[in-house]
Amino acid sequence: MGLKTQNVTAPSTASYGENGAVDWLRINAIDGTTNGCVTAYRVVTAGGKAPATCEGLKKNIEVPYATEYCEFPPI
Prior knowledge:
The radius of gyration is 15 Å and the shape is elongated. A four-stranded antiparallel sheet has the order 1-2-3-4, with no helix packed on it. 7% of the residues are buried. 0% of the residues lie in helices and 40% in strands. It has no helices and four strands. It has one domain (2-72).
């Protein structure tokens, strides 16, 4: 488990998908919840942003995305 401590907009080189790429994050571990990981970064995101509105959409939708997580210190 972790707590988001920073975020930046995905760079223009990210694969934006239909609605855009989700932000890149810095996530700090909550004490005692990880196996030695102190900080994780969500980077190299592709897609993942939800539509601006749900109007006209089905009750349940999926917003696909891909990302890489880097953990420090590496586990």
